[in-house]
Write a structure and sequence with these properties.
A hairpin with a 2-residue loop joins strand 23 and strand 24. This protein is of the alpha+beta class. It contains 34 helices and 30 strands.
């Protein structure tokens, strides 16, 4: 079958050339129109459910809303886990599904269960809703609006209230029309509200209640339809118009008529513009508050394409903004996309140039070099075509796969062309037709070429078995490597013989000078290795054992941190802090940050948006720091130095805990285990007080572990509460129901949106509650008057106790139980060692009550899963490769000789990680997998030719000497092209290089030592085993 492909190509060379042109044309077209991302979307299939419980504390949210929704979601098909957060006024339940579940089907399942759970939920202003159809990495574009106070006309409103209205009703709706945008979340500023602040004394004077006010407003704020009238030959629609359109109309609503005189709403309440109660703010450079918008990408859409459409729409929106208003993007993933893909594209181009240089150097003939070089873009473009068929975007990992393979793509063509070129020199004197020479030469190496490349593809199979984040991250790399290598088989079998037919000529049997020099240097060393076979084998085995022993000193981590070019600081403040004070604290932090000349701008988000996002409490903020280009930095040489300086300076701010990270890394960490740090100790149990106490103990025990930084306990407790607890005996004595007390607390103190005012398509709430002076402290709440059964008035304090206590800020749940987290980052040390120290400290010092458990989450959890999976699959794959070799060569001993090269490759890979100061991570493991395949390929090249020479009647020693010398050039060429093809990835400093560097280190150093040992150890082992086999035959 393999030889038939070669025969077909040589029989129809024109068809092969047409195919070549078609592949180049289609590949270039697909590449130009290929979607681009920074890296694969690693988000799980997750459906968030948001439910607002007006004014409820976290305890009530958990009990009345979160738990019923959680319970309803249990049992859904293919659900992997359910997490939830119960915060003040909001519940968020996250339902995670297996990766093969369609997101829209998952949302349908959750929606159906949510509908069935509605009967168990309390009455709410708005029913629970599903979150945006987006992912954890969906915040692709964030902007803020700022206004020139001297130019804008705000119609008497606060400028940030006016900007928020502009964003909510103009900018937001325009951006939501962009294809690929699922939601635009507003944050910051104030939402305009019409506020009715009732005076309880005035209400009593006129004999009115809050319910009377509600009824009066609703009765005076509606439109109706009266069908139509036929007047002559025309129809006239009939409308009853009674909607309130102006503040004065609301103020003048009659609430009651007393002695023929109307009592207006403004007589019993202050009626004016106001601001909706907010739970978040956005600040700029420590100077002012601004209004921000967060653009969420639709699940499955391509980031680069969506941002391009957004830029076009933003340009339109900007033209239509009022004078003095500016829309300023401060974060967009397109910059990361361009930088990350630019890094790997640059490495790909540089690698290709270096590979071409190697080909010219070793082949010494531009025609042969051209034939091999042409196979590189052909294979790469074939991979691009397959990527398009598999809906794989061009990203750091998929393009990285091509960059990794670039040096291997020409291996098959190198062996083919080198053999054809050598045969043309050897058979020049025989005057054989060129076609016959090419056919014979191609048949000689076609089978080893196919099997050696197939083995490399098989070796990459373990990557496809990775699960979760690591599977989504590295599967595109494995796909593109496999696609490109598959293309290299066809390039070697079809393209190389045909181009050789067109381009190569008969030549004198004369070797290139460089090859002569290399052979002259190699021959005596090889002879020495064959003379001292046992010593060579023992030395290589010793090196292998030493490298294995050194593994224990090699640190481990999940995936190296991707450099994004910006900084994000998570700021946790005192649990009891107010939004206003928290905003002041964050602005102070911003001002300190801006003292550093390396910083361009800071934008901070305090708390959370009104809906559709993570329920951050008001004591949590995220400070986004935009940095100047590195060549403009003055004081610091690296980002790590800047972070260390910022950390030292900002910790002077009292009452804050800091977590230094990056925007994507922050989302990445949260996707891994629901926390905003690299490492988490998760504590599970029922009692919040015990969880809090044990969490503090754990933090104290591990606080001084080297390499563990930004350590903090989740701020989930310490929220001051004013509790109104009904005295049931007193209630019975006065004839006051508990419900009446709670209704008064809910409406008079908390307030309620009772109706809306419509201005064209814009809608603003009418909010009712007592004036602030009647509800602004516990004593005033005690003084609120209630009607008794005999129509007397008594203060609320006589039938209820008003207590000041401390409760939770939020309650987090996972695996159907409450969860508390101790979290931190790793800096200056490997993750594996840090986790080992943490586990040891906790085992020695912490005793948990029955029913309480500890788990380790974050990147460590995923690292353990990935390494466990590879530890299981890689030996199976190596065993499969061994069986393939056995089938190919027909003998156990030859398969063993080739597979013996695999441990030799491990030596250099480990040395490379030590020299480059890299840890053993998932990328490094992928590098070892690639290295094993290349090592097997080199072993096959030698052993198959040894066997060919033996079949021609040569003795063992002669066959090994001649075969090793004849195969020196292809072995060195394949090694050199692979090493130099990866060298730019090793040297790259751009964004994204961190992930590829461990892989490149392993392959480059591993292949270097492996090739050197291969040229001596494989011949020695082959000679030793074959000599032993010959002696056994003689004895028989």
């Amino acid at each position: 079958m393999i030889n038939k492909l070669v025969e077909f190509a040589l029989k129809f060379p024109g068809l092969v050339v047409v195919g070549l042109i078609a592949v180049l044309s289609l590949g270039i077209y697909k590449y130009q129109h290929m979607p681009v991302d920074a890296f694969p979307d690693i988000s799980p299939v997750m459906v968030p459910v948001f439910a607002e419980g007006h004014g409820m504390a976290p305890e009530e949210i958990e009990r009345l809303i979160t738990y019923p929704i959680e319970s309803a979601m249990n049992g859904l098909p293919k659900v992997t886990q359910i997490k939830s957060t119960s915060a003040f006024g909001m519940a968020v339940v996250y339902v995670y599904f297996e990766d093969d579940v369609d997101i829209y089907f998952a949302r349908q399942l959750v929606s159906e269960r949510l509908t069935s759970a509605m009967a168990e939920l309390p009455e709410m202003d708005e029913p629970p809703a599903l979150g945006p159809i987006s992912t954890g990495l969906g915040q692709i574009f964030i902007y803020y609006l700022k206004a020139d106070h001297d130019k804008v006309r705000t119609d008497g409103k606060d400028v940030n209230t006016w900007l928020r209205e502009l964003n909510d009703w103009v900018v937001k709706f325009q951006l939501q029309t962009v294809p690929g945008v699922t939601e635009v979340l507003s944050m910051g500023g104030h939402v305009l509200q019409y506020q009715v602040k009732a005076n309880p004394n005035s209400l009593r004077r006129y004999g009115l209640s809050l319910q009377d006010v509600v009824a009066a407003i609703k009765e005076n704020n509606r439109n109706v339809g009266g069908q139509f009238l036929v007047l002559g030959s025309e129809e006239h629609l009939v409308r009853g118009v009674g909607l309130i359109e102006q503040l004065e109309e609301l103020q003048n609503i009659p609430v009651k008529v007393s002695n023929g005189t109307p009592v207006l709403l403004k007589d019993v309440a202050d009626v004016d513009y106001g601001n909706e109660i907010r739970r978040g703010a956005v600040t700029l450079d420590g100077r002012q508050e601004v209004v921000s918008g967060i653009v969420m990408k639709l699940y499955g859409e391509n980031t680069s394409d969506v941002i391009k459409r957004l830029h076009a729409k933003v340009a339109e929106v900007t033209k239509a903004l009022p004078e003095g208003v500016e829309l300023v993007p401060y974060y967009e993933q397109s910059e990361l996309v361009e930088n990350a893909t630019g890094t790997v594209k640059s490495a790909l181009l540089q690698g290709g140039i270096l590979v071409l240089f190697v080909l010219l150097l070793f082949l010494g003939n531009w025609r042969t070099a051209f034939i091999v070089a042409l196979s590189l873009p052909v294979c790469a473009l074939l991979a691009v075509i397959f990527m398009d068929l598999q809906d794989i975007s061009a990203n750091l990992m998929s393009l990285g796969g091509i960059a990794i393979a670039i040096g291997m793509l020409g291996d098959g063509a190198i062996v083919m062309v080198e053999n054809i070129y050598r045969h043309m020199g050897e058979r020049n004197e025989l005057n054989e037709p060129k076609l016959t020479i090419i056919r014979k030469a191609a048949r000689e190496v076609s089978r080893p070429i196919v099997f050696s490349i197939a083995i490399i593809i098989v070796v990459f199979l373990p990557i496809f078995t990775l699960e979760g984040v690591e599977g989504k991250m590295f599967s595109p790399l494995a796909f593109t490597v496999s696609f490109a290598l598959l293309g290299s088989i066809f390039a070697a079998l079809l393209l190389a013989p045909v181009l050789s037919l067109f381009l190569l000529q008969h030549r004198e049997k004369k070797e290139f000078r460089l090859i002569v020099l290399l052979k002259n240097a190699y021959r005596p060393l090889l002879a020495m290795a064959l003379r001292f076979k046992k010593t060579v084998v023992a030395f290589s085995a010793g090196c292998f054992l030493l490298s294995l022993a050194s593994l224990q000193y090699l640190g481990t981590e999940f995936i190296p941190t991707l450099e994004e070019g910006s900084i994000l600081i998570g700021v946790a403040m005192a649990p009891s802090i107010s939004l206003e004070k928290g905003t002041e604290t964050v602005m102070e932090i911003e001002r300190k940050i801006l003292k550093y000349p390396e910083v361009l701008e800071t934008v901070s988000r305090v708390g959370r948006p009104e809906a559709g996002s993570h329920p951050h409490p008001v004591n949590y903020a995220e400070v986004h720091i935009t940095l100047k280009p590195h060549d403009e930095w003055k004081r610091f040489s690296s980002k790590e130095e800047l972070i260390a300086a910022l950390d030292k300076e900002l910790r002077k701010v009292p009452g804050v805990q800091l977590n230094f990270t990056q925007p994507i890394q922050n989302a990445f960490d949260e996707l891994l285990s629901g926390i905003k740090a690299q490492l988490a100790v998760k504590l599970y149990g029922e009692d919040l007080h015990i969880l809090r106490s044990k969490a503090d103990e754990i933090k104290k025990a591990i606080d001084n572990i080297p390499g563990l930084v930004d350590l903090s306990v989740e701020q989930s407790f310490g929220q001051p509460q004013v509790q109104v607890v009904a005295d049931r005996a007193a209630c019975a004595r006065y004839g006051v129901s508990v419900s009446r007390i709670l209704e008064m607390v809910e409406m008079a103190v908390g307030g309620e949106v009772i109706d809306n005012i419509y201005l064209n398509t814009r809608r603003f709430g009418i909010h009712l509650r007592y004036q602030e002076k009647f509800r602004d402290n516990p004593q005033e709440i005690r003084n609120i008057l209630l009607s008794t059964a005999d129509n007397n008035l008594i203060p609320l304090g006589q039938v209820a106790e008003v207590l000041q206590v401390t409760g939770p800020i939020q309650i987090n749940r996972e695996k159907n139980q409450r969860r508390w987290i101790i979290q931190g980052n790793i800096r200056g040390r490997d993750m594996g060692s840090v986790v080992e120290d943490i586990q040891q400290r906790i085992a020695e010092t912490i005793t948990l009550p029955p029913g309480y458990t500890i788990e380790y989450g974050g990147q460590f959890e995923n690292q353990q899963r990935a390494m466990s999976r590879l530890a299981l699959i890689v030996p199976i794959v190596i065993g499969s490769v061994f069986l393939m070799l056995w089938m190919t060569f027909g003998t156990f001993r030859h398969a063993f000789i080739i597979i013996f090269n695999v441990p030799l490759s491990l030596i250099g890979g480990i040395i490379g990680l030590f020299l480059m100061k890299e840890y053993l991570s998932v990328p490094a493991s992928v590098g070892f997998i690639a290295l094993f395949g290349i090592a097997v390929q080199n072993g096959m090249v030698l052993v198959s030719y040894f066997n060919d020479l033996r079949d021609r009647g040569k003795a063992i020693h002669e066959a090994v000497m001649d075969g090793a010398l004849l195969r020196l050039r292809p072995v060195l060429m394949t090694a050199a092209t692979t090493v130099l093809g990866l060298l730019p990835l090793l040297a790259a400093q751009g964004i994204g290089a961190e992930i590829q560097r461990p892989l490149a280190s392993v392959v480059i150093f591993g292949l270097t030592t492996s090739t050197m040992l291969t040229l001596f150890v494989i011949p020695a082992v082959y000679s030793w085993i074959e000599d032993y086999n010959e002696k056994r035959r003689e004895i028989r």
